[in-house]
Amino acid sequence: MPAIYATDMITFYQPGFWGLSSGAELEAFAAAKPDAFWDKVMATLAETDVTGIELTFGPGSIGNVLKAFGSAKAFRETLASRGLSVVSAFMADAPAWADGADLGAIIADAEARAAFVAEAGGSLLVTGLPMRRTVGVRPPLFIDAAFMSHKAGIAHAIGEAIEKQGIRLAVHTESNSALWYERDIDLFMSLTDPRYVGLCPDSCHITLGGGDPVRVASRYDQRIILAHWKDAVGPIEENLVIDETIFLQQQRFMADFGAGVVDWSGWSKAMLATPGRDIVLLELDAARDPVAALLAGKAVVERARS
Q1: Which one of 3.20.20.150, 3.40.718.10, 3.50.50.60, 3.40.50.450 gives the CATH number of domain 87-305?
Q2: GO molecular function of the protein, one example (predicted)?
Q3: Rounded to whole angstroms, how far apart are CA atoms 145 and 151?
């Protein structure tokens, strides 16, 4: 069965693509004219043969989809009429997994998202672990067994709750988060039950942490239920300030597909051995030209798989 090509809604968050000058203007536009926002997204995807969507924060969030379409069912029907579908949703704006957090609220939020994804035709919820703290900040945050055991417990609770709705949980490897270095991944995977917690490795972010995404993908091939395909210029060799700008800071270390150091042949081969083999999710952070970027990504994958 041929792979489904998909992309994260972040691909469409470059204000210039919309003739706007800021993220705030894009948010306002999508809120005021949701039909126009989604029509352009769908029309753009039609030019690329990328048919899958991963929802996330902002204009492409579950909440904003409900405001625009009224229900997951209506959204699914609209997408289907354009040959598109939801494959997953990233819980970027979910309650934080902090010490002392309300586990009941975290689970209720995940269950609501899972219900939406199931009705919208998807099968996966993706989340990340909390961010690290800047080196030198006091008190420091140590990503140790105690820290990971607490997060593993939350992941187990969510995974068990949403499994009842036919949705699986995949935890994403994000730069400067508690799941960034290969050692982080090894620790978290060792503490989580594969029946309830899957892995969503990101080829770019693992590279930025000095790791080898192919090695990670091969080591955890049976845990990978989705992967984010993205290129990187190489490891981040400085301690970035981890604050509200960290995601923007990280973008300068990301590369266009084929212009970075990711071993796409090795990554593609490893992905074919995973349960997530049927979805190729091309992740592009706010592409200036989504059509060109997605076509370039597809071309890289197809060469690697030939």
Answers
A1: 3.20.20.150
A2: myo-inosose-2 dehydratase activity
A3: 10
